[in-house]
Amino acid sequence: MSPVDGKKVAIQLISTGGMYGAERALLELASYIADQGWDSRVVALEGRGATELVQRATALGLTAEAFVATGRLALLPMMSRLRQLLRRYPRAIVHSHGYKPDILLFLLGIPRRLACLATCHSWYSETRQLQALEAIDKRVLRGFDHVVAVSGEICEELHASGMSLKKISLISNGITAPSAGEDAKVRVREEFGLPRSAKLIVQIGRLARSKRNDLLVAAVANLVDAVDIHVLLVGEGDQSQALAELVKRRGLEDRVHFCGYRDNIPQILAAADLLALTSDKEGLPIVILEAMAMQCAIVATRVGDIPRVLGDGRDAWIVPPNDVRALTEAIRAVFSRPDLAKMRAANAHLEFLRQYSRDSMGRRYLEIYHRVWAGRGWL
Q1: How far apart are CA 330 and CA 216, in angstroms?
Q2: CATH topology for 4-175+357-375?
Q3: Mind listing the pLDDT tens digit for each residue in 210-249?
Q4: Are 57 and 32 in contact (CB under 8 A)?
Q5: Which residue from 61, 145, 240, 347 has the least number of CB within 10 angstroms?
Q6: Rounded to an integer, what distance in angstroms lies between the CA atom of residue 126 and that of residue 26?
Q7: What is the CATH architecture of 184-355?
Q8: From its phi and psi, is residue 64 left (phi > 0), alpha (psi between -120 and 50) or beta?
Q9: Is 208 exposed, middle or buried (0-12, 13-18, 19+ CB in 10 A)?
């Protein structure tokens, strides 16, 4: 089938566990591409976040579908449905996000027939199985037309795996500035029964080992006698039970609140005094950009592209990974110097406006789309 009404077609593919960073970046890109006149489509192969991803894409005016609304589809049926879908668009740009769609496209031989791009948002090699899949993914991606990394660290990993630098581009994530109601601070605190005067820290993302939520729990334990602190852990993951047990051992059950998955991140950031990101490994997390846009103070570890985006001592507090003492002192500084925290949050907001909007990201992707399209001889 030809593109709809002569439009060029771009199909975004993802296997999704929820509306996290990769999903948000995908939607921002898909909406930008649609605004440029393309037939922009979103496909959630499967996953717990598939229904919400399709709903959000549809709300943006995009064509979207989920192979499986919740749960997982067996490999062979998924491959069959993907093959049928792509047969309808023989001159599409197929853009995958994550190891699963990357590998499925390879198994189907799609990169030999269609223009294939991939964005590497991050790899989480927390188990031997994931380490093996990461190695397979890096090898598979050599056959794609182009690969985008969201951080310099990921660029280096791709090149070290044997990929030509000509095939790699670094494009930072970009988002539309979120907004929250003026009463967000009051509403969020009321929902969790928090005192209005309490200092509120939020940590947003998967509850996974690499996120090192345990470091934040330890830092709060060091500070709770001196500062009235509450923490919202926003997200789900396989470390939830272990973290709950850690919180209980530390005697922080009334201070650390497990929120599960939430779809009101702007409101939570508007209510927070501080976003903490304590990961061992990251690319460029969308939540960092959201906090910058919302002028929420940030304490983050020096990993991935975070120190490139945020200047320590200028825009945020940047601390070494796996350093509870440094994390504790940074949090203490945020709450003891609210004037300084406000100034750094304002600086970060200006940096967001200059560099990390949806359109600045979208323009760079569109340049690659056009190059790949032309490289395939589809003029």
Answers
A1: 11
A2: Rossmann fold (3.40.50)
A3: 999 999 999 999 999 989 999 999 999 999 999 999 999 9
A4: no
A5: 61
A6: 24
A7: 3-Layer(aba) Sandwich (3.40)
A8: beta
A9: middle
